[in-house]
Amino acid sequence: MVTFFGFLCVIAKKEGPLAIHLTMHAKPRRRTVTENGDGGEDLVLATSVGNGEDLGPIVRHAFEMGRPEALLHQLKNVAKKKEVEIEELCKLHYEEFITAVDQLRGVLVDAEELKSELSSDNFRLQEVGSSLLLKLEELLESFSVKKNITGAIQMSKICVEVLVLCVKCNQHISEGRFYPALKTLDLIERNYLHNVPIKALQKVIEKRIPVIRSHIEKKVCSDFNEWLVQIRITAGNIGQTAIGQATSARQKDEEMRARQREAEEHSRSGLGDFVYSLDVDEIDEDSVLKFDLTPVYRAYHIHTYLGIQDQFCEYYFKNRLLQLNSDFEISSIQPFSKSPQTFVAQIAGYFIVEDRVLRTAVGLLSANQFETIWETAVAKMTSVLEEQFSHMDSASASDLLLIKDNVTLLGATLRRYGYEVGPLLEVLDKSRDKYHEILLEECRQQMVNVLANDTYEQMVIKTEEEYNMNVFSYHLQTSDIMPAFPYIVPFSSTVPNACRIVKSFIKDSVGFLSYGSHINFFDIVKKFLDKLLIEVLNEALLKVIHSYTTVVSQAMQIAANITVLERACDFFLRQAAQHCGIPVRSFERLHAGLTAKAVLKTSKDEAYHALLNLVNSKVDEFMALTGNINWTMEEIPEDENDYINEVVLYLDTLLSTAQQILPLDALHNVGSGALEHISNSIVGALLSDSVKRFNMNAVMGIDNDLKMLESFADERFHSTGLNEIHKEGSLRDCLIEARQMIDLLLSSQPENFMNPVIREKHYNTLDYKKVASICEKFKDAPDRLFGSLSSRNTKQNARKKSMDMLKRRLRDFN
């Protein structure tokens, strides 16, 4: 309305009232007259203007075509045409326009009144609105403050939440709870950091997050490094505890075997029935072996959370491998053979810890890394053991046994955790021969000391305890009946002492071979037992036997000792079988005896031979007194020669002692050997160059000597009980050569010696040459002054002739 009103005012000023009237009432119409010959273009332009279209394209086209003047001309033409149309319109609606102008004047009056009212209303409105505007401005300012405060509160809440999380993170770190601290850092970084409205605070937090993560990583690494130091210190205690458990298990096993052997012994002797029970102790190693792996778990978990798990795994592997290599370094301060417990305890503790880590910290150690650690340990330990064994020339068997026990206990301990310990036990098998060489050498020295300190007198057992300790415990008794005390045994202290050495050797040998790679090692024990008995015991006995200082009593006691030791070989073998866990019945059925038993039997024969040599040497001392015999005595002797009393007294002492010590067979051998040697000595005396000649009286004296010896031999043969085991002969038969020689010299017809039948019957032990030599020295009658002129007995003449005949025939025979 206002715009249209303004338009009318403009028209009225320019054209007057008539023009306004025409404008309001005239209807536009198209003119058909063209001017200046350019009607077509003017029509187009007029149509566009009339339709209100945009003339921009037309103007742009005119300038592009370089004809702006033509366009301007056309616009002027269009304006002229419009003016003509307005004039025509005004003329057509003149009256209506006048009326409209009048009405418009009234409207103008009303408009002025309205304007005045509006002005007054506006003034009042301005008065009222000013206070309201002030209130509005205050309200808008309040809204702005509220908005700012709300934003500030929201920002403060975000900052407070972030700061609370930061405080919580710091608290976790101070309390050592690193995983919650890292979770808090991730929460801040993921959900809050990009929303922090304060850029300074945001930058500070951004800078501190990696620093805190680095601090946590360093802290857990520091704790882990402290754990590495601590666990190496405590590994020895862990290993000792675990090895103590293995030791207890082994002791229970040995006690069970001992009870089994005892039961077998009682069952074998038929003493009664036994009830067996199985005791099973289940031990939770993890509950007994307590050690803290928290630093490992924490470090591994933290590194895993930080995404550097592989870095920590490699760090753990390298450091533990370095510790393992360090554990295998043997201290030069204390010999390894004196303290292997510390070494094996450290290794056992190390692998117990690694087993716990492998089972509980899944992924920390790979299977390949674990295999590498174990293979390194096996190679190192094998090398250490081989090197130590190679430098143990001065070590004792107990040192090697101590090493073996500790290594097998280490193997038993680690086997319970699933480790393959076969290579360690194979190293012990390689040292088996060296150990037994050292053990045999120690036993040899002990045996030499035992033999050197023995008095070679029969032991006198005074109490039952002494009897059980020295006799019964080695099955040396000849009867199951307990003897009366004091009781004299047929052996000296060498026997029980040697049995103790052998029994200890069996125990040590079995102890070294037990719990190794061989399950059935009885044949190995048997081999070394044979070696002990043959190369140590037997050789030591032979040295004593062949010693120049050995006397008859010693030789006799040694022979008796060997007899007992020979019988004890079966006990030794049975002991070895029992210690090896072989049942007695199957052992007796399947296993052959010891070779040493036959060797000792041979040595026993050699001892008897040495004894006889000593006896014969002593007899020779007495028989040397035959040099005091008057071989050409004039009177017929009524008694024996003096030397024979010494001989018989010695034989009486000898056989009495032998009867107490030696078995009957040995007693017979000693007695028969001595008597046979006396017989040979008598014949030898007759053959001696010192005896140039002898007569009948001397022969009769020798005959008296032989009768005394024969009487002694017969008495001893029956009193000692030899007649019960030697029913076809007697001790008298040992004097047969001397007896036959004396009988030949006393015979009235000595020439019958040349008769084969008579010689076989009465002189079968005599040698032609000896008979010839002795007969050449024999003079039938004693020499007297003018003896050739004295009367002679007819009988003596006949004997002399017969003797002369024998001499001639023997000379012819020779």
Automatic annotation (TrEMBL):
Q: Which UniProt keywords apply?
A: Coiled coil, Cytoplasm, Exocytosis, Transport
Gene Ontology cellular-component annotations? cytosol; exocyst; membrane
**Domain spans labelled Exocyst complex component EXOC6/Sec15 N-terminal:** 74-243
Q: Which biological process terms from the Gene Ontology are attached to this UniProt entry?
A: acceptance of pollen; Golgi to plasma membrane transport; intracellular protein transport; pollen germination; pollen tube growth; vesicle tethering involved in exocytosis
Chief location bin: cytoplasm
Please list the residue ranges annotated as the Exocyst complex subunit EXOC6/Sec15 C-terminal domain: 423-777
Q: Which family does it belong to?
A: Belongs to the SEC15 family.
What name is this protein filed under? Exocyst complex component
* Species per Swiss-Prot/TrEMBL record: Tetracentron sinense (Spur-leaf)
Q: What lineage does UniProt assign to this protein's organism?
A: Eukaryota, Viridiplantae, Streptophyta, Embryophyta, Tracheophyta
